[in-house]
Amino acid sequence: MNKYILPILIAGTFLGGCTPESDQSQPKGSAEDLETMQQTHAVDENGSENHADIVLGVNKVLAKIKELDTNKDDNTDAKSLNANGKQIEEEWDKIEKKVEKSFPEDYKNIEESLYPLIAELKKAEPDVAKVNEWSNQTKAKLDLFRMKAGQ
C-alpha cells in the first residue's frame, strides 16, 4: 500500500500543474484540510494588511519548496538539500507568528508536514523519498491556506 502513495502523490502534483486555468480555481487537497481552513479563520486587528503579508510570505515559502523540487533528484548532494531546508525555514520563520496568531488551526495543520520536511532536509543524508512526500503535502496545504488567507 505504502509503495503506491508516493507515485500517486507525484502524479497528482504533476497533473495538478497541467490543468487549464479555469480548473485551477478549485482548491487542491483533502476535504478535511479545506474544511479545517474554512472553519478556523480568525479576524486580526490589522485585517487585510496582515493577511497580505501572510500571503506574500506563503508565496515565498512555496517558491522555495518548488525550487527544492526542481533541484532535487536521487543524485542531489546533502549540502544542497540542507541549504534548501534552511531557506525554507527562514522564509517560514518570517511569517510564522502572524500565521499562528491569525489562523491557529491552519498553522497547526501546515506545520504537521512543514516541520518534518525541514527536519528531513537538515539531516546529514536526507531521504529523497521522504522529502518528496513532505514537500507534496506541504505545498498542497500552503496552496489551500494561501487561498484562504487571501480572501
UniProtKB/TrEMBL annotation:
Domain of life: Bacteria
Native source organism of the sequence: Peribacillus cavernae
Region of interest (Disordered), residue spans: 16-50
Protein name: DUF4363 family protein
